[in-house]
């Protein structure tokens, strides 16, 4: 059984989260600079069995595309090209950053750690992944 790798794609930083092999728990993984995100994924897939990818799709409050929608879709297309045997799924990522900030506060994370943008990105990826798991539970 493979894991599901979630991606919170950004033009500067990209956050990652992953499930356990049984696909029950979503855990934050890492945040990397976007220019090395594809290589990070390739390295991860080489050492772990990844079943599919989930990408947060940036949409506005009105449900329409934002400036970040096309770059996320373009990254998804690169994923499909590099990993043709793996499905790529999109999840609406509205409010994930706010939810990530709230979860850091609830978890007792210090203010200086909450200001680290990479922490928000990887926690957002975990929220995206958890949302996908809930939408696709059997």
Automatic annotation (TrEMBL):
A GO BP annotation: rRNA 5'-end processing
Domain of life per record: Bacteria
InterPro entries in the cross-refs: RNaseH-like_sf, YqgF, YqgF/RNaseH-like_dom, YqgF/RNaseH-like_dom_sf
GO molecular function: hydrolase activity, acting on ester bonds; nuclease activity
Keywords for this protein: Cytoplasm, Hydrolase, Nuclease, Ribosome biogenesis
Record SMART domains: YqgFc
Localisation: Cytoplasm
An example Gene Ontology CC term for this record: cytosol
Functional description taken from the UniProt entry: Could be a nuclease involved in processing of the 5'-end of pre-16S rRNA.
Record's protein name: Putative pre-16S rRNA nuclease
Organism phylogeny: Bacteria, Pseudomonadati, Bacteroidota, Cytophagia, Cytophagales
């Amino acid at each position: 059984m493979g894991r599901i790798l979630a991606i919170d794609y950004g033009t500067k930083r990209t956050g990652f989260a992953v499930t356990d092999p049984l696909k029950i728990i979503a855990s934050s993984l890492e945040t990397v600079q976007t220019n090395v995100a594809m290589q990070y994924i390739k390295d991860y897939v080489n050492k772990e069995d990844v079943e599919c990818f989930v990408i947060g799709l940036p949409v506005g409050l009105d449900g329409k595309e934002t400036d970040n929608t096309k770059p996320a879709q373009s990254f998804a297309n690169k994923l499909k090209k590099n990993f043709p045997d793996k499905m790529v799924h999109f999840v609406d990522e509205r409010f994930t950053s706010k939810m990530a900030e709230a979860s850091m506060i609830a978890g007792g994370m210090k203010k200086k750690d909450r200001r680290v943008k990479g922490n928000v990105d990887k926690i957002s990826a975990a929220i995206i992944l958890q949302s996908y798991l809930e939408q696709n539970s059997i």
